[in-house]
Predict the 3D structure of the following.
Amino acid sequence: MKDWIPFLQALIWPVFITLFIYKFRKRFEDILISVKERIEKGSAVGVGPGGFTLGAAPQLPDDPEPDEMIDDESPQQASPELIEKEKALEKSVFENPVEQLQLIHSSRFLKIKNGRDYYRILVSLDPYQTKALSNVEKVVYYLHKTFRNPVREITDRSSNFELKTAAWGEFTIRAEVYLKDRKEPLRLSRYLDIQARK
């Protein structure tokens, strides 16, 4: 019997995983179909030492073609007045650069330095439509006064004028967005909250 114990111990996990997958097979099937669809639509896939990674989901196009229109089978239809109101609102968004661009950010734990948790902070411009970025020349970020270089100028449009930095606390970042068709820069701000590690 002693000889069978290692064999049974090695067999328990595969049997448990198989039963678990069988019990929730519909959910696993849905996940596999979802991954397949994401790959077919252009999401990047990677398998390596860090495990399995699936890139960002495809983004909806700014100017959809007829075959890209979403039919969610909703029976509700907006009134003609509401449709006209939406068109007027969208037009005003493109006439007003303040409504075309906003700051977004993300944070993740980086390291412990001098007894403090440091976080990687990424801040960038998020346009209402991607063509709004073509009017931007540069972004000047104003960080908290505790930074050694609190004023940073970013000119890389391909990264959405992304600022990469590290911080140990939360603060409000200010940005001046210089546009080709305006003398005065567009002034934006965002409170940079940190996703604390658990």
